[in-house]
Specification:
Blueprint lengths: L7 E4 L5 E4 L6 H12 L6 H26 L4 H13 L5 H8 L3 H13 L3 E5 L7 E5 L1 H22 L4 H26 L1
Antiparallel strand pairs: 1-2, 3-4
Helix pairs in contact: 2-6, 3-4, 4-5
């Protein structure tokens, strides 16, 4: 095992292909090798990608969440604050739910906590009292603005293992996959 990132496809007994992960030395490669030992007829190729995406996401989130924990925020709370900051205008709870891929009930609970901390303020709609408009307070904006540079510095450091061309290639491939998945999920909801 040389630890390189190359892999070779090999044919299985039924004519499908599997990815030979013996050249890779990460946790997903070990899992794939185990499956190939006990069930060599399985095409474990998808696991090579999905498993790595999931593992990378989990590891990145653990490290990224450190600044949030120091600020006393959870990832979902920061996502709400970030949505209010990046859109640059007031949002309703329903709009925040769509922006953060959260349920309405979860958004309501988080907004209550963020409001109690003085990070978000609510304004009633003049035409419909059932509608609330939410915006960041100065403290909320300052908190997001203070955390974002640290988050981006961390992400840049992680990605520095790949040159700019590889980063662009990876971003493009992940963007293509994400677009297809989002389109598929919209189709299921329709």
């Amino acid at each position: 095992m040389d630890g390189s990132a190359t892999s070779e496809a090999s044919a299985t007994n039924d004519g499908s292909t599997t990815t030979d992960s013996s050249a890779r030395n990460d946790t997903v490669a070990a899992v794939v090798r185990q499956w190939q030992t006990v069930r060599p007829e399985l095409d474990t190729g998808p696991m090579e990608i999905i498993g790595r995406v999931n593992r990378c996401a989990a590891l990145l989130q653990q490290a990224e969440d450190a600044p949030l924990r120091r600020a006393g925020l959870s990832r979902p709370e920061f996502d709400l604050l970030g949505a209010l900051r990046r859109t640059g205008h007031e949002l309703t709870p329903g709009e925040l739910a769509r922006e953060t891929f959260s349920s309405g009930a979860a958004v309501t609970k988080r907004l209550k906590q963020l409001s109690e901390r003085g990070l978000v303020e609510r304004r009633g709609d003049t035409r419909d009292r059932r509608v609330a408009h939410l915006r960041l307070t100065d403290a909320g904006r300052d908190l997001v603005d203070g955390i974002m540079p640290e988050q981006l510095t961390y992400e840049s450091a992680v990605l520095s293992a790949l040159d700019d061309g590889r980063q662009d290639e990876l971003a493009g491939l992940l963007g293509e996959l994400l677009s297809r998945l989002e389109g598929h999920m919209r189709g299921l909801r329709a």
